[in-house]
Amino acid sequence: MQLPLAVDLDGTLIRCDLFSRAMLTFCSARPLNVLVLMSWLLHGRAHAKAKLAALYPVDAATLPYNEALLAWLREQKAEGRTLALATAFDRVGAEAVADHLGLFEYVLASDGRVNLKSHAKAARLHATFPEGFVYAGNERADLPVWRAAKAAVIVNASAWLRAHAAREFVVERAFPRRGGKP
Questions:
Q1: Which of 10, 17, 108, 146 could form a disulfide with 152 if both were Cys (CB 3.0 to 4.6 A apart)?
Q2: Which residues, 6+ apart, have CB-to-CB distance to 24 below 8 Å?
Q3: How many Å apart are CA 117 and CA 108, to the nearest integer?
Q4: Which residues contact 125 (CB under 8 A, 6 or more apart)?
Q5: How confident is the model over 99-117, as pLDDT tens digits?
Q6: Which residue segments constitute the domains of the chain, with CATH numbers given?
């Protein structure tokens, strides 16, 4: 039986960052919104993500998905593998993506209080899958999650991160950057 596969959202499943996109939209609307955003950030990134997700609902049908990864996830699901969406983005947006795709049995996301990134994500995934899991990610912040995982799926990562991951982790699969080398 294959271990559950947890998949990051921003930069991995999709080719953008929803928090950055929402911040830009919010601050571009009115320059004084920068001050509002800063006040939200004083309450933590998870709080700011929840506020922005409420203002700018995710239209999951229009996101720039990583089609190669998505095709593989569909194969994994068809083979009976448990899939989880594990993201630092707010739960409302993550659930919109999960509902649209219909692939994920679990959605683990920031909740307005906890920013589910790096060590926090590793701990939540370990608690959810105590027998082990595989994690698909794309950035340096994912290193603690891969350390907690039994194997890594490297997606859209820099050459440095791909090389580092190959030295430190069991790599189940790698997906290159668009137009990049595997």
A1: 146
A2: none
A3: 10
A4: 6, 84, 86, 108, 133, 135, 145, 148, 149
A5: 999 999 999 999 999 999 9
A6: 1-182 (3.40.50.1000)
